[in-house]
């Protein structure tokens, strides 16, 4: 495993944050309704009032950010014919780690003819952070999913840059038991050096990956490419009995990235549109 130099202090004296939140929803009476809600530690979920599908949920880490040794888990189960849109209260900040790494585990399960939109706000990585995230998605044969993860390596407007650190992001998406998407993103310990390469982002610090699993995925390819422009790309495939559209974007900072993510999510998220907590 890659290593970076950490500030020396007694990690045993530091209090670590831990949290697990689980949300289950099902279709009943023509609406998606809350079926189960569990919250433990610093992981909380709030449900804004909505008049129609999808059910909306807002994830909150009350610890105010993540650092080495913190552990957070989010589990969302969307039943057959139900739909849910999940976002976060704010950008998740990953601070400098004194020891160990922060870990986030996400598990999304969607039943037949169900749909989930996983749309957290950006993850902001500070210098000398250490972070690992796993995202596991299980879709029934006729289910759909829109999955987004955006990351900003340092807030340039605040004079911050994540020059050193470790960042790991592992995705596994299965539909009807078949693996239809897998990726492992790894960068560090020289984050700035890796991003500076022409084959990476050419030195820009904001990146995003967006995945749409839907039979209609290929129909969105041309408008998605138009929104992305020349700082990223998109492709579409037929997978198993459905379709997959994968888009990757990069930008000079988080604001420029969000300027393109906003119309992208609005396009791909159907009538649900953009989460209400998102703004420019």
Oligomer: single chain
Main sheet characteristics: 10 strands, mixed
Averaged pLDDT: 91
Q: Structural class per helix/strand content?
A: mainly beta
Element pattern in H and E = EEEEEEEEEEEEEEHEHEEH
**Approximate strand percentage:** over 45%
Helix content: 10-25%
Radius of gyration: 18 Å
- How far apart lie the N and C ends? 37 Å
Low-confidence stretches: 3-13
Tally of helical runs: 3
Strands, count: 17
Q: What sort of overall outline do the alpha carbons produce when their principal axes are compared? A: globular
Q: Mind explaining what this structure looks like?
A:
The chain is mainly beta and 280 residues long. It is 10% helix and 48% strand. The protein has 3 helices and 17 strands. The protein has helices at residues 191-196, 221-228, 254-268, and strands at 18-28, 31-41, 43-46, 55-61, 71-78, 83-88, 92-94, 102-110, 115-118, 123-125, 129-139, 144-153, 165-175, 178-187, 206-213, 232-239, 242-251. The strands form 2 sheets. Strands 3, 4, 6, 7, 9, 10, 12, 15, 16 and 17 form a 10-stranded mixed sheet that branches. Strands 2-1-5-8-11-13-14 form a 7-stranded mixed sheet, with no helix packed on it. A hairpin with a 2-residue loop joins strand 16 (232-239) and strand 17 (242-251). It is globular. The termini are far apart. The relative contact order is 0.13. Residues 3-13 have low confidence and may be disordered.
